[in-house]
Amino acid sequence: MKTFQLSGNLVDIFQQEIYPATIYVENGYIRNIERNNNSYSQYLLPGFTDAHVHIESSMLIPSEFARMAVVHGTIATVSDPHEIANVMGVKGVEYMLENGRQVPFRFNFGAPSCVPATIFETAGATVDVADIEALLQREDIRYLTEMMNFPGVLHKDPEVLAKIAAAQKAGKPVDGHAPGLRGEAAREYIEAGISTDHECFTIEEAKDKLQYGMHILIREGSAAKNFEALYPLLYDHAASIMFCSDDKHPDSLEEGHINLLVKRALAYGVPLFNVLCAACINPVLHYKLDNGLLRVNDPADFIVINDLQNFDILATYIAGEKVAENGHTLIASTPSVPVNNFTADKINPDNLRIPAPDSNAGTITVKAIEALDGQLITNAITTALPVANGLIQNSTEKDILKLVVVNRYRKAPPALAFIHGFGLQQGAIASSVAHDSHNIIAVGTSDESLVAAINAVIAEQGGISVANENNVYTLPLPVAGLMSNLDGYTIATQYSTLDKAAKKLGSPLAAPFMTLSFMALLVIPHLKLSDLGLFDGDKFEFTAGC
Fold first, then answer.
1. CA–CA distance from 180 to each of 102, 146, 237 (Å)?
2. Is the pLDDT of residue 197 over 60?
3. How far apart, in Å, are the Cα atoms of 452 and each of 164, 323, 363, 367, 457?
C-alpha cells in the first residue's frame, strides 16, 4: 500500500480559503488533511480539466496527449472522439478508450452525436441512434458530445431528438455547439436538453445563452481563440464557466494548456477562486467526473505550484502517482498499433482545372471563402479572377488561392473552390485532418504544387504536408489519418517544422494547418467546402462558386 504525505498552502476552492496543511495519501486517496501553523513556499490545489477537447486534433494518440498535458497541471479532459468516429465509427471510439486506459490520466470520452456531421459531405462511418444508446450504457462514456446539428434540434429531427433522449435516459449531459444562435432559437435549443456551448465568440451571445441556464466554455485553441472576448464572464458568472481548448496542435500543447488561461485571467485581475472554479471545479460537477478535488476521501489528484502569481507547475499527481515534475513528464510512452480507413488514389493536375463558364471572357466573378485568423467562422466574398485558356486562374496578388477537398474514402472528383486569407506566395499545404469528415484538404498557388502536397498525404495514408518549389515535407499520421503513434514531443518538433515551412510560403496565419482543417467544417458559417461542393452555412445548402 503506497502512502506518503505532502505539505503546503492548501487552496480550498469550495470554502474559498487558503491555509497551511499536510495531506496524507494512502492507496491513491487523500485519507486526511491536517491544518498547521507552518510556513510553506508551495501551494496545493486541484488539477485542471479541459472541459472540451478533441484529442485527435493534437495529432497525438491519447496516451501521448496525457504525457504532455500533465506537465501543465492538467489531470483530466472531457474528450469528444467524433474526429476518429467520422473516420472509423464506434471502432475508432473504442481505440481512444483503450489507448487512454494505458496511462494514469482521467480521460472522459463521450458518445459522438453527429457522425457524419451533415449529409452534405462524405464521412468514413456512421454512428446511429442504436450505437449512441449502446455507448451511453457504458460507464466509460460520460456524456453525449456536441450536438452540432442545431437546425435538427430546432426542427425536431426524430434522430437528433432520439440521441438526446438516450443521454437523458442514461442520466448523462448533452454538449452543445451553436455558433451565433441567439434569442428564442437559443432558448429552444437549450430547453431541448443542451447544457453547454463552446462556440460563443461574443460576450453578448454568451450572456444570451447564460440567461437560459447554459454553461459557457471559454475556448482558446490553436485556431479558435475566444478568451479575450469572453473572460469578463468570470467576474459575474463563475459558477457557469469552464475552460477548454477544443482543438490544440502539439506545438501549442508543449507550450501550455489550461494553465495558460488561468495565468491570463489572473493577470487581468479576475479573482483567484472565480478562475479556479472554471479551471478545476465546474467541469467535475457538471459532468460528474471522478477527479479528486482535494478533499478527504477524494482521489489524490492535485498539483503543486510555486505561487499564486506565476502559477508554475512544480508537480502533478493523479491517483496518488506523481506524473510530472518541474516541467518533465513522468509517464512513459506506450506502443500503439495504428488503425486507419484510407483508400484515396493519387491525383494529377488535370483533376484540379476549373473551366470558366465563358471561355472567351478575360475575367470572371467568383464566390470565395474568406478565412479569418483565430476564428472558425468564415466570410463569403466575391472577387474577379483572370481566365486563361478557358480556365479560371487564382491570384497570389489578390490572395485568392485554390482550395481542394479530395475524398479519402472512395474514388471521386476533387471539389474545388477559391479562398482568401492564407496568403501563400508559392507552393501548397495539404492535410488529412479536415473537420469533420477528414477528407484531404489543400490550399495552394498552383495545380502542380497542390498535386505534390495532396499526393504526399495520400502516399502516407494520412498526414500533413508542405510543397514548395523544390521539396515536399510530410508529417505522417498513420492513426486514422489524424494522429501519430510516436512520442508526443517528437511530433511537436516535427509539426513545428512544417508549420514554419507553411509560413515561409507566405502565410500570415498563426496556425495555417489548423485554420485549413476547419475550411471543410460545414456546421460553422458562412462558406465552406466539402468533398461534395461549396456550401452555404447560413442557408445550409450547396451554392455555386461562379
1. 39, 15, 20
2. yes
3. 44, 42, 28, 26, 9
Query: Which residue, 79, 81, 18, 25, is CA-closest to 51?
Result: 79
Query: Could you give the CA distance from residue 325 to residue 316 in angstroms, rounded to a whole number?
Result: 7
Q: What is the C-alpha separation between 546 and 418, in angstroms, rounded?
A: 10
Contact, 309 vs 272, CB < 8 A? no
Average pLDDT of the residues of the chain: 96
**CA-wise closest residue to 344 among 417, 430, 432:** 432
Q: What is the largest CA-CA distance in the chain?
A: 87
- Lowest mean pLDDT: which of 49-63, 330-344, 352-366? 352-366
Cα distances from 497 to residues 8, 57, 106, 374, 466, in angstroms, run: 41, 17, 31, 21, 10
- Rounded to whole angstroms, how far apart are CA atoms 116 and 106? 27
How far apart are the C-alpha atoms of 310 and 262, rounded to whole Å? 10
Instruction: Measure the CA angle with vertex 355, ends 350 and 361; round to 5°.
Output: 140
- Average pLDDT, stretch 509-538? 94
Q: Name the helix (H) or strand (E) containing 396.
A: none
| Phi, psi (rounded to 5 degrees) for 517 | -65, -20
Q: Which amino acid is at 321?
A: E
Q: Do 44 and 30 form a contact (C-beta atoms < 8 A)? A: no
55 burial (CB, 10 Å; 0-12 / 13-18 / 19+) is: buried
pLDDT of residue 360: 83
Could you tell me if 42 and 305 are in contact, meaning their C-beta atoms sit under 8 angstroms apart? yes
Percentage of the chain exceeding pLDDT 90: 93
**Cβ proximity of 461 and 342 under 8 Å:** yes
- Candidates 119, 74, 69; CA nearest to 436 is 119
CATH 3.20.20.140 range(s) for the chain read 48-290
Query: Structure pTM?
Result: 0.94
φ/ψ (deg, to 5) at 433:
-95, 100
Domain 48-290: top CATH class: alpha beta
Sheet holding 527-530, edge to edge: 527-530, 533-536, 541-542
Residue with cell 479575450: 228
Q: Which helix (H) or strand (E) holds 424?
A: none
User: DSSP labels for 215-268?
Assistant: EEEEEB-SS-B-HHHHTTHHHH-GGGEEEE-BS--HHHHHH-SHHHHHHHHHHT
Q: Examine the pLDDT at 186 and tell me if it is beyond 70.
A: yes
| Whether residue 1 has pLDDT greater than 70 | no
Question: Around Cβ 508, how many Cβ atoms within 10 Å?
Answer: 12
